[in-house]
Amino acid sequence: MRWSIQQLLAKKEEGLEMDASVDVRELIERDREIRDISPVQVSGRGDFTGDTVTFHVRLKGSMVLPCSRTLADVNYPFDIPMTESFRLDGTPVDEEDIHLHEPENGYVDLLPYIEENILVELPIQVFADNVSDHDSPAPQHGKDWEVITTEEAAGKNQEEEEKVDPRMADLAKYFDK
């Protein structure tokens, strides 16, 4: 996913179509949450406007992330739209425009932007479906504790509210008056 400025300018009239598979396994080292990642299917086009090329790309693939509750492996498919633009005329780019970039050493390389977009789209939490206690890398209960769902927690809170401390029973009657 790397082109020289001359290669891009040669495709200015006909446009640039992309459909390739890119290896982004380097992300495993950059983010410890990513346990595995498949090659990413990059498809889209590059549109030329004046001295700017704008890439409209879709990134499709899947990665393995740890379940937030049990640490079990969860396959997480992704489909990320990406738009990045590059100035080809050598004019400096305004630093505030996060989607407009300058070529580096005469080349436009999309790989760092592909990796960045994947990292930005990582979910905060993922949950595994139907993981039994013995398959889970993280314990689900221990001495005086257990993992419960939100519904179970709401039910326990309601039960606790209904119970009146015997030491406060007379005080509770005071407010009934």
Give the tally of structural domains. Answer: 2
Number of separate helices: 5
- Gyration radius, to the nearest Å? 27 Å
Helix coverage percent: 10-25%
Overall body shape: elongated
Could you walk me through the main structural features you see in this protein, from its secondary elements to its overall organization?
- It is a single chain.
- This protein is an alpha+beta fold and about 180 residues long.
- The chain has 2 domains: about 120 residues, no CATH class; about 35 residues, no CATH class.
- Helices cover about 25% and strands about 35% of the residues.
- The protein contains 5 helices and 10 strands, in the order E-H-E-H-E-E-E-E-E-E-H-E-E-H-H.
- Strands 2, 3, 4, 5, 6 and 7 form a 6-stranded mixed beta sheet that branches.
- The longest helix has 13 residues.
- The protein is elongated, with a radius of gyration of 27 Å.
- The protein starts with a strand and ends with a helix.
Q: What distinguishing features does this structure have?
A:
single chain; 177 residues; alpha+beta; 2 domains; 6-stranded mixed sheet; 5 helices; 10 strands
